[in-house]
Write a structure and sequence with these properties.
The structure is a single chain. This protein has about 240 residues and is of the alpha/beta class. The chain has helices spanning about 15-25, 45-50, 65-75, 95-105, 130-135, 150, 165-170, 180-190, 225-235, and strands at about 5-10, 30-35, 55-60, 80-85, 90, 110-120, 125, 140, 160, 195-210. Strands 1, 2, 3, 4, 5, 6, 7, 8, 9 and 10 form a ten-stranded mixed β-sheet that branches. Strand 6 (about 110-120) and strand 7 form a beta hairpin.
């Protein structure tokens, strides 16, 4: 089973090599890397190209379109059996794909959600607090109506997703939504399936940037964007397809 890993790239030359190397050194070797160049102004893409790996394909936007659009573009160029979104300043543990594929195959899961830890530029790590609420023990093939506290984890970057399930339900990121785009995305995922498996293991590191001049989009988010999120949630929950 092949895994397609979508990595949007914009202004991450400090982090991109760590991200790419965490994928190329995975214990599970059947994967492709779809890098989406969102017109990054720095050396990020040059660094990606330096790996000269046949597993890496670079898709280029003609203009900057943002993270949601970059993820949507990446999916259009995926040819694997499973999909994983990886942000370009984050990275995976070496056995992440192997662990998730084994669970997905053993239980025929549509989604395998795993734990993450924060890491800063000094290498200090600490738990992602909401994972302690949602992903606090292993379980297989549950759904949001049965155990909402187990699987209502909004992140896009800690999930292995069966690609044909994703495509069948036409799941996409809202490209107009600059902040909190993961929330509505995860709502779409969880309301379309009864086959979500949870891995308590930490398989991913989420980077908290220390440089105030180069914060990630999530770190620099504005509180007024919650209004947009709330409205999108309301519209989705009223959609007959989500009932």
């Amino acid at each position: 089973m092949k895994v397609s890993i979508v990595i949007p790239v914009y202004n991450v030359e400090k982090y991109i090599c760590r991200c790419i190397e965490s994928v190329l050194t995975q214990s599970y070797k059947n994967f492709e890397v779809v890098v989406v160049d969102d017109q990054s102004p720095d050396r990020s893409i040059e660094l990606v190209e330096s790996y000269q790996s046949e597993k890496i394909r670079i898709i280029r936007h003609v203009q900057n379109r943002g993270l949601p659009a970059s993820r949507n573009t990446g999916v259009k160029h995926c040819y694997g059996d499973y999909l994983l979104f990886l942000d370009s300043d984050d990275f995976l543990k070496p056995h992440a794909l192997e662990k998730c594929i084994a669970i997905a195959q053993d239980h025929q899961s549509d989604i395998v959600s795993f734990n993450s830890e924060h890491i800063n530029d000094e290498g200090e790590t600490w738990p992602v607090s909401w994972h302690e609420k949602f992903n606090f023990f292993d379980c297989c093939n549950t759904n949001i109506s049965d155990y909402p506290k187990l699987i209502w984890d909004v992140a896009a970057w800690n999930k292995l997703i069966r690609l044909d399930f994703y495509q069948q339900h036409n799941i996409k990121f809202d490209e107009k939504q600059k902040y909190f785009e993961d929330h509505l995305f995860s709502l779409q995922l969880f309301t379309k399936t009864r086959k979500v498996s949870i891995v308590h293991d930490v398989l991913h590191y989420y980077t908290i940037r220390n440089d105030s001049a180069n914060l990630s989009i999530t770190q620099s988010k504005k509180i007024d964007s919650f209004d947009t999120v709330q409205e999108n949630f309301k519209n989705s929950l009223n959609d007959d397809d989500l009932n």
